[in-house]
Amino acid sequence: MTSKKTGYLLGAVAGAGVMAAAVAGAGMRMPEARADQFQGGGLIKASTAPIFAPPPGAPMSFADIFDRVSPAVVSINVTSRVSADSLRQIPGFPFGLIPRQPGGSDDEEGGDDQGGRTERGQPRLPTQQSAGSGFFVSADGYIVTNNHVVENAEKITVVLKDETELEATVVGRDEATDLAVIKVKGGKGPYPFVNFENAARPRVGDWVITVGNPFGLGGTATAGIVSAYGRDIGETFVDFIQIDAPINRGNSGGPTFDVYGRVIGVNTAIFSPSGGSVGIGFAIPAEVADGVVKQLINGGRIERGYIGATIQNFTSEMAEAAGLGDQKGAIVADLTPGGPSARAGLQVGDVVTAINGQTVRSSSELTRQVARARPGDSLRLDVIREGRRQTVTVRSGTRPSERDLAANDNSGNPRTPGSPDAPAAKAPPILGLSLGVLDGAARQRLSLPADVRGALVESVDQNSDAGTKGLRRGDVITRANDRAVTSAADLAAVVDAAKKAGRTSVLVGVYRGGRTSFLPLKVSG
Which residues are designated catalytic? Predict the structure, then answer.
């Protein structure tokens, strides 16, 4: 299965015996060479090792590893319901019309064969089949897999190496790390299982082997190397391991092993422009997976720290615009009303540079460090505000589910584009933006909450830096560098000050769709 967030798969190149294939002339009769053909050159031997001896560090075969670990790896077949929202995207189906599943696979007890409805008259959604991988982590039947493999499952069937089929149920899921734990029921056990390796980890370039169920081909082994660590592919709480062992659709949730047969990662995604393996795969590190899995088995849910702030990377370009040199960190773009950060006095525009004495270089680092806190813990944030360094202490709350966070736009209002009859700009363009007053009529037209203050963007020069970076009519400019903006004159004053200071850009806060984002805009002239 592919990751629903990334659309990636997993992949690699088997390496056993590569050197043997590279030795020229093995088992072949070569024609005699004339003495003048090489003009005095001598024959260069690539290797003096025996023909089938691997280079140092390379195993002759991965067969022994596979024999030991493969009984613990399972194929996971999932039956789930197609969502009504996805059906509404299918051309030819009117909004609200639910088609029947071919072959009658959704004719379950209580269904209506004629109308495709339940006894209560509601349309029955069709089922779909999908497959993934997993592995036993205990003798009593607990299995690790990806959340996206089982999150909408109505029925889960686990297929063992000997083709035994067992039903399983979901024990717990964690959307944030894309991990899940399921447990077989009705089996005889005990089951062969494998362990996570948290202490030692392979170096970049060391061999790894994956086992899984690509395209429904269960029990498939592939080998490759660790390509890199610390890959950020958009998942909030995971620095991924990059591997080049071939993994494809259906490998999701399967294990990556080191050459000792220990689990170093859980395969979850691949980068694939073609849809198949291109040798760039990603696995959740064992140290992350092990902790999440233990919590899911013990309690079925994960609790993480939460400060109620929307943040983004504070880039070098932003630092230059704000006159902060090469400062790294995370800038506060929004605060949840009444949340922990708002109560503690954190402000929009603050740049967080450290938490509890540990340096913060990006928004991901801050989010992960906050998440490690327990609800109620005190978090000391070092921030830069209006060019001055200070400390804000925030008491951590409990992080809501990813679905709840995604649904919260901080405003409760839909995003509505500006209407054609917006009033004409009242000031000359600044940074390529024509700004007007955010009055009551504009608020009503744009469905803006009463607490949003700023200058309304009424037109954008598409040839300007603002146009290139996607600003558009209906946006609201709320801040510029360390100053709140309520009019075109406010922004003009900040731009003039930046020019006098020799800066080439201004850091601007833009409100759109219930959220504020910061971006640097180049100062021309």
Answer: 148, 178, 252
